[in-house]
Predict the 3D structure of the following.
Amino acid sequence: MSISLHTTTLASLREERALTGYLVQARAELRARWHPDTGGRSWAQAHSDLLDAVLRRLLALASERAGQSPQGIALLATGGYGQRVLAPYSDVDLTFLVDRDDDPPLLREAFRLVMDVLMAGARIKVGYAYRHISEIGGDRLDHQTQTALLSARLIGGDGALFARFDRIYGPGLHIADFLFRKISERERVRQKMGESPFVIEPDLKEGAGGLRDIQTALWMARARFDKTGDALWRELVRRHILTAQEKTQLQEAREHLYTVRNLLHLITDERRERLSVARQEEIAQRLGVAAQSDIPPVEVFMREHYAHAQSAFALSEKIMQRCLEAPLTLGSDSGLASLRRTVIVAEPRRVAADPHWPLAALEFCQRYELDLAPATIEAIEELVGREGLPPDSGPRFLNLLMQPGDVEQTLRRMQRTGLLKALLPELEACMGLVPYDPAHAWTVGEHTLRVLRNLVRLRPDSPPAADLPVAYREVFSSLESPATLYLGALLHDLGKQWPTLLDGSRAPHELTGAERAEAICERLGSYAQRTQSAVFLVRWHLLLAEISRLRDLARPETIRDVLRQVPDPEHLKMLYLLTWADTSAVGPGIWTDMTARLLDELYGRTLGALESDQPDEEAPDEANRRLEGVRDRVRRRLASQATDEEAEAVQAHTSAMPAAYLLNTQLETMTLHLTMIAALTGDEAEHGVVTDLRTLSGTQQTELTLVAYDDPTPGLLAKITGVLYAYDIRLHAAQVFTRTIKDQKGQAIVVDTLTIDHRDQPLDRAMRGELATALGRVLGGAETADDLLTRRRRPEPSLGTVKNLRLELTEDSLTLLDVVVPRGPGAIHALLRTITAQGWNIHAARLSTWAGLIRCALYLSEATPGTGGDLKAALSA
């Protein structure tokens, strides 16, 4: 039925129920008339015409009921409906355009009728917007709205108002901004949906070679050349963007996609865009596709589909790229332009009048994913070398950190052109600064840029990555000011170029950097609150990494140590993300699953404390309930496939191990420990020691797991480190746990896990065997550690000068020893031997090497109450 017939019939209908009935019946008849020969654009246009007629009637009825003319009100169709290609179950997108400031009854009645007839009555999904004519033009509309209005057409109402809109909208569109945002949007969708049209179950709308490719190309061409409809197609041929044959190919591909999409909606009776394998045969049959030789109809159909999709993909891409080839003016009066996706100086006189133009060029690069043209790079280098930058350039630079886009690449362009040296010479000085820490793979400056890269990956507009936990993105999205985090990341390691504080005293880089960070921020024009937060990030950027690696996270005093420095959840979130970004940018293998679990646990517990009514501590009853809940979950999972005897061992193990072990040990690792404990208690272990050595995946390190009966006299861990030193094996990290409940023999069992290497390589099979034998002999009493060191001709272990020594009593009456020792010959063995000699037991330990130092956190108790020696005096001697 033609639109005129719809209009004639609808004119006699005045009630919502009658209008709804007509719309439902007419749509049903239209669906029944679908035919392969006319099932594409022709069918979608007929569907659009039906909705046009109904909406015009609703607007007229609203005018009658309100007693008002629609002057100053225009009802527009937008999006796919605006293009007159409405699929059976597509949304009907409407915009009420007004040029009046009151709230007319006509508008309210029209809106109510649309909701009642279309949405409630005919079950059609309607998207709607309300726009004042003053909002049209310039950059007052978001990109999605700009795109929707590009296809706007008048359904009914004030025709003069729509003509005015048409005159304003096109010329008011910032062409370069629209084009670059549109192609960037399409590229992001392709990254998500796939970049090949040759998928088994293609998405007819958003997939590569789908309708969105063609629509994007035509939207861009419409904005670029100010043509529509057939005139636009002729323009594409006239400009040699497409040949006449390619134009026909693309139009045929579009018709194929519309036909198949319409049919898919109809046979599934819902909005569905993915052409599933289950529907392909039915689609081929309904289209009347015949077999060819031995090829069944469904294969013939899919081959035809892939040919059309490939044409749509390739020719749409050709149009999109050609739209970007000719110079595009950037901004309204910058004097800069884009040519083949590079920023060029288009108007030298206008550029010369703005001393900040290099930063404007960088902003365009960042916003639109452009590069600087070689001539532009030379012009910036010349300007910076001759005149430098104005003193007020700092705020413009900070503004770049707040803009969408790849901030890391902006910093690299600044470094390439000399802008970084002019604006942030402290970071430029770090580009060639070697950190002298074997864990670091890059210079301090390069590391900093990689930290920034990691943070940029968290942005909502960045492509998804399988190696990036969703939780980090969620935390990033909740930040009040990501730019503050970026600034803190830029400054966090600058202190490595200054070994001393301003008063000349030596200090670690987090202190020397924080002391100077405030002046740097002020020079850049940072406001006070952002400066304070950036200085905080510099000062404490190692806090979460150190505590998560070294401390027992289940202890309340551990969380309180974090709370003493972190003022609120916002600063904790920034510190959490910076810790991940910083550690991940150190080098291969540094960020591990265990590192992530420990950091996540610390972050979660600290955030909970900050957000609770009693942030300083967890109520004892609540802590106990939480721990028992963890024990039960671990117990059930370990015992799910165990025998009765094994289940009993699981019960004993989970009851006897401390909270830190249960919270931070993988189930697979616990299963290994149970097997080793069974071998120990079953008298299967030579010398009473069970060891397991395996190379850590993706690293050059070996993990040593050792299970043994606890030595009745202090010194088990000291003996282990003595054996390691004897074989010139370097200790990187250690976790030491003692089962709190003794076994049937009345002996406690220790479970130690150490990360080690031999001359920067994992231990080979021969050395693993030799080490296991030596550990058994020393721990079993067949040989002392000192005798082994003498036999191996190792130098006397040297403790060196300890730093940052701190002793703190924990809530369960243990003593926490937190100390830093130099990584000298046998330093760890010397430290532990000294502690043992003073009559102290080691209940749990964590050690971590970093920057030539060894940070140790040891939980101690006196072997005999009241007899422990003075550790401070002994270690400082």
About this structure: The first strand starts at residue 73 and ends at 77. Residues 614-618 have pLDDT under 50 and may be disordered.
